Amino acid sequence: MRKVGVVGVGCSKFGNREVTLQELAFEAVYEALNDAGLTQEEIELSVVGCVGTRTYEFMPAVPVNEYCGFVGKGPIRVEAACATGSAAIYTAYTSIASGIVDLAIAIGVEKMTEVDTATSNAVGGRAGNYLWEFHQYGTTFPAYYAMHASAHMAKFGTTEEQMALVAVKAHRNAAKNPKAHFQKEVTVETVLKSRYIAYPLKLFDCSPISDGSAAAILASEEKIRELNLDAVWIEGVGYSSDTSNMTRRENFVGLKASVQASRMAYKMAKIEDPIKQLDIATVHDCFTIAEIMAYEDLGFCRKGEGGKFAERGESDFGGKIPVNTFGGLKAKGHPLAATGIAMIYEVTKQLREEAGALQVDLKNYRGLTHNVGGTGHFAWVFILKR
Amino acid sequence: MIIESRELPLKHNISVKKTEKYWKGLEEGKIYKTVCKNCGKEYSPPQAECTFCRCETDWVEISGVGVVEAFTTIHTIPKGFEWSEPYTIVIARFGNVRVMGWGKNVKVGDKVRAYTAKDAAGVWKVYLEVV
Question: Most CB atoms within 10 A, among A148, A273, B109, B113?
């Protein structure tokens, strides 16, 4: 198996964007090509990630691929709910690691604001098992994480205040990220006073409905040496999944798929103590409780102590491991297929010391991305090293 | 500038022949799980065959008292449920399996019994009531 590196990254501004799906995708592709110093001609394969359930374009890969300049070089379309971006990275990664191509681009793009909120809720609610869950009981997407929050609170005493602190941190970081959906700090009180979306989750516990795109160009070690490219290496890859039906899960206080994906990636990257060996982590905080569970599932703290981990500021700048430094899904925004690649973008920027006001201190020059699809229906972990 | 797409209402005809016993059961006040004839694995929601033994399953009624493991109350109502007030979704454990249903005033750890009824839109479903 060949070594693979990330040689170019791009990310659009997230938010309510007045452009089409393909125009949005091109914003990230354009930046990634410039970042790598490459042209479309040199790229041999394109992978287009798009969940696509809220856009007018039902089969979006071809129009996106054409607009971005990759006709004839794919596209392979991938979908893994909110982890689609990571599935795109994996597809590009394995294509290169196997020796089939030397240069591939992973594109993740989502237009989520083309439909109204009630429709968006009904679409998101289908991210489980439609017939047995949404059809019968109206499980919206926040509902899935809200049920986990209810179990976590009952078992470990996790509080709505602790969850609010995750939102406060996210907004504080996003305020310094010009590409974030929200650039406004919030207080614990604002979060706690916001209206319930799905008890116990309130408006400010939830990531917004955002448009956005991200792209990453991956290359083989040979190509990196040949073109003298600046690479951030993919050291570890982990994936897993879980049942579509919530009733069939092991428990509701964590995501088993996250545990399994992270252990697989840790093994490959020879990580025994993630807190000590990583300088930065992006975790899947579509809801504040999701970030708390991620601290535990990824082994940053013990099961049940995620709330206290947030309370002690361990996931903030200067803490044990800065998490979601660009504002997280929560405040930066969560355009589904873009998210996993935007995480690769963030960790790459951090490891190259290009994160400006949001730069973390680097000791190991190693970072992690953790991307969940649905409610642990999919989980992906990548370890990057400079 | 915005262009509105042409309208495309989507409604699917879902074939539930293999789990018809479950759907008919709801109308008779019965909630079924299935159990593999070979390995004994229990399925809830039910399925007519065991994924791993590749054989048929037996239909067994779920009864007795369950325990609430998770719940939420939906305040942002999705399309398809516009007719409803905020509703509470509950997951409760009954022996080796769990059941999802609508409930009221529950908390994790509460003991519940399951029954079936039509909702305001005429769909038969499971309700979980604190005992």
Answer: A148
